[in-house]
Amino acid sequence: MFGLANPERFMRFTGPLTPWLWGVAAVLLAAGIWLSFTAPGDYQQGDTVRIMFVHVPAASLGTMVYAALGISSFFALVFRHPLADAAARAAALPGAAFTALALITGSLWGQPMWGTWWVWDARLTSVLVLFLFYLGYMALRSAIDDETKAARAAAVLGLVGLINLPIVKFSVDWWNTLHQPASLLRAGGSSLAPVFLWPLLTMMAAYAALFLAVWLTAIRTEIVRRRVMSLRARAALEA
């Protein structure tokens, strides 16, 4: 990881890798969508159960991407890792998109199952707070003109937001909530039938590959942007 902190080495390593990730993401998404639509309806939820194949991966990636953002912020703030700030910045937008998708699909799933679009349930509220942390991170970076100060302030906020991740994960265990407990990763194994488990795992792998493709592309773009800004600043000084 520290070897890839060098921008030149990072660009050489990720150059051929990124197109493959886009291809893997496309194949997995196609397979996941096909499996999701060919899976049978649930005996209680009917075809509404198919929302799970979009909602669960989006919710999982929303939390995992914020963990990546927080860890990158830590390295950027404490160790001045050369690419850590770029990695944190690049993770914010896709992470916010995954979290927003989880909130939207959760509401669409909750309305027929619970009879309401939204409740101030511990899980729902903590995921909403997670989404607000994403928005706050991006807003803070945009609000400060000095990029160095903006990066430092956003890194602090990114670290603070890590406190919310255990709450998101364990909220259904710590409090009596309307949201169902974990059915995929739990003691004793998954409670999902194979006809639902395999489409779900495929979609989760597709979302993960898609995020990695987007993340690496965004980091590479950020490196190029900073190089251009540096060249412009140098040219202005010489002029």
Automatic annotation (TrEMBL):
Q: Which residues cross the membrane?
A: 20-39, 59-79, 91-110, 122-140, 152-175, 195-219
Tell where it localizes: Cell inner membrane; Membrane
Q: How does it sit in the membrane?
A: Multi-pass membrane protein
Q: What Pfam families is this protein classified in?
A: Cytochrom_C_asm (PF01578)
InterPro entries named in the record: Cyt_c_assembly, Cyt_c_biogenesis_CcmC, Cyt_c_biogenesis_CcsA/CcmC
**Cytochrome c assembly protein domain boundaries:** 19-179
Query: Which terms in the Gene Ontology molecular function aspect does this entry carry?
Result: heme binding; heme transmembrane transporter activity
> Single Gene Ontology BP term?
cytochrome complex assembly
Q: Which GO terms describe its cellular component?
A: plasma membrane
Q: Which UniProt keywords apply?
A: Cell inner membrane, Cell membrane, Cytochrome c-type biogenesis, Membrane, Transmembrane, Transmembrane helix, Transport
Q: Which domain of life is it from?
A: Bacteria
Q: Tell me the NCBIfam families matching this sequence.
A: ccmC (TIGR01191)
Described by its record, this protein's role is as follows: Required for the export of heme to the periplasm for the biogenesis of c-type cytochromes.
Task: Write out the similarity annotation.
Answer: Belongs to the CcmC/CycZ/HelC family.
- The entry's protein name is Heme exporter protein C
The protein's gene is named: ccmC
